[in-house]
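Database export, one record per block. Field names are fixed; values are copied verbatim from the stored entry.
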Amino acid sequence: MNKNPRTSRLLNKANSSSAIRLSAADRAFLQDLSKALIIDETTANLWHYAERKSGARRRLDKLVEAGILERFEIGAPKGMKKITAWQFANKAMARAWGGDVPGVGTNRGHFHELLAGRSYFEMGRPQEFRTAGSFTAEDTLLFGGIAPDAIARGENGELIFVEADSGHYTKTQIQQKQRAWQDQQQFWIQPRTAMARVPLGEGVSAVRV
């Protein structure tokens, strides 16, 4: 079940004096953010703020000012423009919505985490979608030693492994992961400039963004 905290509770967590009132679009965005962890401007424009002539940025920056969100620019692969995106301002704010902040580190950059979250929308916003940080002990039994970036469930309840390639996987690396998960449905996402294209097959689908 999606969490839907009171605005006053959020502003208290942010130690904010803002008088902002969350709209239905804001709440839909924040509930989706609890699953995707990062949402870019293009996605927010399409899925949440299509009715606003000015798009998502001005409204979401109000949530930044209120201490609910953080905005940042993501460096993208060669040939792509920098991407404006938002995440929760901190872990406490994320937990209020049942989410988290991205696990960005040495092996996981913001662009990779953005792609992993973007797959949630490319799959049509499945009811169950969990990124790696929320995997359970039971989940790890399914991976065969290689964990995907997220797990989702399809319309018929089938388990789907989700993998984001930020463009650097070789053909061999892709094949190794596909073989490890050959007994599971797979959904891949990668940029159009990726080094190696993900091969499709029975139980394997992919999008290039």
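Remark 1: The chain has a mean pLDDT of 91.
Remark 2: The beta strands are 39-40, 69-74, 83-88, 129-131, 150-153, 159-164, 185-190, 204-208.
End of record.
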